[in-house]
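Protein Entry — a single chain follows
Next Lines — sequence and tokenised fold
***
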Amino acid sequence: MSRIVEGIQEKIRERRYEFSRHAVDQSILRAITIAEFEEALLGKCELIEDYPDDKYGPACLVSGFTAAGRSLHAVMSYPGQGTVKVITLYEPNSAVWIDHRRRRGRGEQGE
């Protein structure tokens, strides 16, 4: 497990995280509860993509599963001194993702 994921999990365990407005909106639209978010990211969570040079600050895409087997992705800020921010939260769409960790190529997405 990466140090980034370990840091994110530590913040989640300590309840030192916040949702962006976008993440709140998306979690409501997608019926993702706080309990599911915590369960997925505190379980076997893995780093899928890393965005160290993102224009809004270092961030990453992490993936995890709920106990019921629901796959969730969260784009998160890097864990810093304060809180970690959930930028967006969603269930991977099979039109974009081959499985929970591999994106389809542009031609495979019907573009």
Q: What stands out?
A: Residues 107-111 have pLDDT under 50 and may be disordered.
